[in-house]
Amino acid sequence: MTKISVFIVEDDPMVLDVNKGFLEKMTGFTFIGAAANGKDALLQIKKLKPNLVLLDMYLPDISGLDILVELRSARVPCDVVMITAARDAITIQEMMRLGAVDYLVKPFRFERFQKSLQDYYKMAKKIGGLNQLRQEDIDEWLGSTGNSVSLPKGLNELTMKQIMLGLVGEALPVTAEQLAQNVGMARVTVRKYLDFLAVKEKVHIEMQYGNVGRPTRFYSLK
């Protein structure tokens, strides 16, 4: 396939230069433009129709969320990776519901940026060559970005992504019951995924002992 065209929306010139530098280190991608505000971004994205948009949340005029809503409403055929300092669970979940393929929280290292775009390239290349997708293709696409944990049989990529997103927005450690309420799942399901993540050293467990009964487990991202 031809190179994937990338458009960057970022109002900080230094951050823009860093992201452009990261992009230039990678093969298979070509930078086609940038915008420092939402109005210009929408005009240029609709005109250029890039394959992929690297989109900041906080802009001088409108938010990245507003831009993504407008792009989806106008059915602009582009994918979006969010690159922002926003960490609250509500914002992240809303972005994912609107179809963002990944969410990079500033500051991040080149390795995380590289993984995100490599995963995107791999699946864009694969899907671009198919007329119809198998269930395995769909599952691989939906679970390919943002989560480097290899799951055993019985655990689901999409459920894992929801739980990880729920943890991202928590400023303090939470119990499995609290997180289950926040993400709308059963406590026993959330507990199973959290304990697996703890074994993989992706989640930290803090035991708090009361006067009676078993200690309470509190979970947080490492």
Automatic annotation (TrEMBL):
Give the CDD domains listed for this entry. Answer: REC_citrate_TCS
- What GO annotations for molecular function exist for this entry? DNA binding; DNA-binding transcription factor activity; phosphorelay response regulator activity
Q: Name one GO cellular component term.
A: cytoplasm
- Chief localization: cytoplasm
Which segments constitute the Response regulatory domain?
5-121
> Which UniProt keywords are listed?
Activator, Cytoplasm, DNA-binding, Phosphoprotein, Transcription, Transcription regulation, Two-component regulatory system
Classification via Pfam families: HTH_64, Response_reg
Location of 4-aspartylphosphate modifications? 56
The places in or outside the cell where this protein is found are: Cytoplasm
Report what the protein is called.
Answer: Transcriptional regulatory protein
